[in-house]
Design goal:
CATH topology of one domain: Rossmann fold
Strand content: 15-25%
Distance between the termini: 35 Å
Helix content: 25-40%
Structural class: alpha/beta
Shape: globular
Length: 581
């Protein structure tokens, strides 16, 4: 595996104002538990820790939510207001006869009601089930049906466009709550504003066990139905811990997570984590627009920004000098998640934003950040970073007898595994016990990601286990080839697959999207192949390059290599419910 040859000293990050070294080494989950208040009558509920305990104390009047509407509106909600509004929603659910473990699905753009209902759902001990508002009808119905939906909270436009005609496929659905309807349509289709107006703004959270189900997320596989990933209230321990160590949240921070709550990042780190720390949370309703994003960073004086590689690559495609065109002086930390961050993006951050972009790794199943590049540690461009305190990660390999053992050698590839027992570990795949059990071997959770660990304790992503390319006896990780292609000035994005070849098993084929000002040509194909051969060697470099204006991506921004491969080989495309339009 090729290592990224950059001067390490160019990417040193000065220590944080608070030196976490001692507490990092002495970390225990029991001490994290002491950071929380717990319910007055006993038990543990995420909503109480994220909103009510602040509203009942010194942060009552502090701004919890700043909402930026796509048409220029701006609204602020204090922790006290969030407590009252989420209490109203919890009372609405109770009045409708909904309670413990009833599934409340949300299909809504990033409106204040979405965030209020999320907290209110958790207060009521119901289960929050977020859907991405840009899903089409089929993925919506699939998830609602599989998730035993009792309630759908949505807008009139989304309901008419995507759900109404399919209601007969949802026999368990009891209510549709429309956030923008003035009055009820029927006993089933209700006006949320009317219900909220009649509801009390006082709500006593019932006893909640830390192991009670809290959030249900769906993650898509290569084939078959989406998997329902079950999380519990105790997951907040990981959210708080990762908020402290990976996101370095302090009380005076202004925080912006660009992820939609329809994805796990947008819930875990766009709702729960900042409020566990009593931090002001920015919500931008509008979709990606470079100028708007930079102005949000500038005007809201964002200090900690959590975004995705796709967004960063879009910004990289624009010829600009952000720190000269905008005042980004408040910004002190950028974290990235969703898929591996190419080394070139880290370098671009240093050059254009005057700070590195810190990659981190986790999955829907882990519930929270497991491995990260911390603000106080050196950054190796392309690395996932080191495990957070309380997290034990290892590289394991399968033996001939089917058992697994840890890889002791540095830089040897294997499957990335996390030792079980961290608080946000998923507790089940809904209605699929067998699949859940196959996700573990002994005390290890099997991530399905291939990686290796270097002598400094940093982990490096190689690829998904089913993405690895076997060519002429070599094992090639697509991410390595994609990252090298992105070092070329013409390349905006790249997706790499293995294409069957009778002579060498598989040949490396790259699909490339170009930056503005460059046009596809045979000459550029040859140039890119030569560029990769020089950097990677002939065995690893792509032998074929195909230009595409846009690569297929999930709506969360991940390049869908399996879809590139399926289309190349004329195979069934599998589950494409998360495919970007």
């Amino acid at each position: 595996m090729k290592k990224i040859k950059k001067k390490q000293e160019d990417f040193l990050v000065k220590p944080n104002l608070i030196d976490y070294t001692q507490e990092y080494n002495e970390f225990s989950w029991a001490e994290v538990e002491e950071q929380f208040e717990g319910l007055p009558g006993g038990g543990f509920n995420i909503a109480h820790e994220a909103i009510d305990r602040h509203a009942n104390g010194l942060l009552a009047s502090k701004t919890a939510l700043v909402w930026l509407g796509e048409n220029g509106e701006r609204k602020e909600f204090s922790f006290s207001q969030m407590k009252k509004e989420s209490a109203r929603f919890a009372n609405v659910l109770q009045r409708l006869g909904l309670g413990e473990e009833d599934r409340i699905f949300t299909l809504c753009s990033r409106l204040p009601e979405l965030y209020i209902s999320a907290i209110g759902t958790l207060k009521n001990r119901s289960v929050l089930c977020p859907l991405f508002s840009q899903f089409g009808p089929e993925p919506i119905i699939q998830r609602m049906r599989r998730g035993d939906a009792k309630v759908l909270l949505t807008t009139q436009r989304l309901f008419e466009k995507k759900v109404r005609s399919l209601l007969d496929q949802l026999p368990q659905l009891q209510y549709v709550l429309l956030v923008d309807a003035a009055e009820d349509e029927s006993d089933m289709i209700r006006s949320l504003p009317a219900l909220m107006q009649k509801a009390s703004d006082s709500f006593e959270i019932p006893f909640t066990d830390a192991e009670d189900m809290s959030v249900l997320h769906f993650t898509s596989g290569t084939t078959g139905m989406p998997k329902g990933v079950v999380h519990v209230h105790k997951a907040a321990y990981t959210h708080w811990s990762s908020g402290r160590y990976a996101l370095d949240l302090h009380p005076d921070d202004i925080y912006w997570c660009t992820a939609d709550p329809g994805w796990v990042t947008g819930t875990s780190y766009g709702i729960i984590t900042p409020w566990l720390h009593g931090v002001t949370n920015i919500v931008n309703e509008a979709e990606f627009d470079a100028d708007r994003w930079y102005r949000v960073l500038q005007d809201e004086k964002v200090t900690v920004w959590y975004t995705a590689p796709t967004a960063i690559r879009r910004l990289m495609r624009i010829e600009s000098e952000p720190t000269q065109e905008y005042d980004l002086s408040s910004l002190r930390l950028i974290q990235s998640v969703g898929e591996p961050l190419n080394p070139e993006a880290v370098i671009w951050g240093v050059e254009k934003l005057k700070m590195p972009i810190h990659d981190n790794w986790w999955q829907t199943e882990t519930g929270g950040i497991m491995i990260a590049n911390l603000l106080s540690q050196e950054i190796y461009p392309g690395s996932m970073g080191r495990p957070l305190p309380g997290i034990e990660a290892s590289i394991i390999q399968q033996n001939d007898d089917g058992t697994y053992s840890e890889v002791s050698e540095f830089a040897k590839e294997g499957e990335l595994a996390i030792k079980t027992g961290w608080p946000s570990m998923f507790r089940a795949f809904l209605h699929d016990k067998e699949r859940y059990e196959k996700s573990f071997t002994g005390e290890w959770y099997l991530s399905g990601d291939l990686a290796y660990k270097d002598k400094n304790g940093y982990f490096w992503f190689v690829g998904r286990s089913d993405d690895i390319i076997k060519t002429s006896g070599h094992m090639v990780g697509p991410f390595e080839v994609e990252s090298t292609l992105m070092e070329h000035p013409a390349v905006a994005e790249a997706g790499v697959i293995g294409k069957p070849d009778p002579l060498i098993g598989q040949l490396v084929k790259a699909f490339v999207s170009l930056k503005g000002g460059f046009e596809p040509s045979e000459e550029l194909q040859r140039e890119l192949i030569g560029f990769c051969r020089k950097k990677l060697g002939t065995a690893v470099a792509p032998k074929e390059i195909e230009f595409q204006q846009n690569l297929p991506k999930t709506r969360s921004g991940k390049i869908m290599r399996r879809l590139l491969k399926a289309r190349e080989m004329g195979l069934p495309e599998g589950d494409i419910s998360t495919l970007e339009d």
